[in-house]
Sequence to fold (415 residues):
Amino acid sequence: MPEDPHHRSRGSDHPVGMDVARRVPPADGGGDDDDAAAIGLCWGQPKIPDPFVWPLADALASSETELDAPVVDVGAAMRGGGDGDGMRRAAEQVAAACASHGLFQVTGHGLDPALARAALDGAAAFFRLPLAAKQRARRAPGDVTGYAAAHVDRFTANLPWKETLSFGHRDHWAAGAHVVVDYFTSVLGSDFKPLGVVYQDYCEAMKQVSLAIMEVIGVSLGVGRSCYRDFFADGCSIMRCNYYPRCPEPERALGTGPHCDPSALTLLLQDGAVDGLQVLVDGEWRPVRPRPGALVVNIGDTFTALSNGRYRSCLHRAVVHRERERRSLAFFLCPREDRVVRPPPRLLATARGQEERRRRYPDFTWADMARFTQRHYRADARTLDALARWLGAASPTCDAATSASQSQDKAQETV
Fold:
């Protein structure tokens, strides 16, 4: 539901602020005509409409310098029970990347190249469907799953130049069914069952890779291999297929605006040699070039909270091209909806006789974060701080919530 501009955070007298209020969807959630207009007026036209034009501060020119992101061999890390030199090397690489910009790439992940190709080809086939067919999976207001064109169902300005298809994933034992297959057949029809099977298999492979990466991250933070792996073992993750069409004015548009992912971890498979992902480092937007066989991994806000701010959520965007279209697959690792997100005690403990380390963020659940970012706030670089205010957590024990409230009007519109 849309946010009331006079809304106040729960349990607090502190207003959430207009940076939150102006990010919510229209009251009616948009309509089929909105999506049709987004595609009909833009894709393939010589000019882009004003709602797709981004502020110069967000659409700054890209740097020629590629992001210096380590390539972590997760297979070597897990070899021999995960206690050898491979794990130590991987943990050092992850620690360095996550303390600076929050992104690294992984190889040795075990993803079947044929499955990766089938998933990318399946996304290409879906986005080539007539609009009426794609609209059968149209995203409902306030929901994270479904088809969306340029997010016109949620926003009226700074629209991203893309189409997406999102759906949820759970392990069989947790859901009791092939949830991805069921989604495709129930929403799109029985003809889409083979594609549902492809994405069921792809999501299960991504979940296993994610858990292995969580073991490396646990070692890198000194909390052990099982700490974060167990935390996410019964999670409810999200899969998103992205399509970025050719754009007649790429210097004025963005495929995705500057933001940090609300989830814990993102695993991105880029299609071919077409780049688009960029990370902000030292005031420059540095490209992340596709590497054959590698997956891009970035830290999200939920894990930043789980690490008590030690690992940075990756601030990134996606650019578009005049002559080339681009596709990618993003797997967002998330906790179970009702699981409380708080740092493990070892990250808060200090030497004997000293005070406990100050908590950077309040407790919240993934359900809280999902509801906040889908119904109340457009995810950006300040999402965690805004969530803290929304939860009524601006208190002496949460540094970030108080400092962010002093600069909330400077938050940028992002996706």
Remarks:
- The chain has one domain: 52-353.
- The domain at 52-353 is CATH 2.60.120.330 (Jelly Rolls).
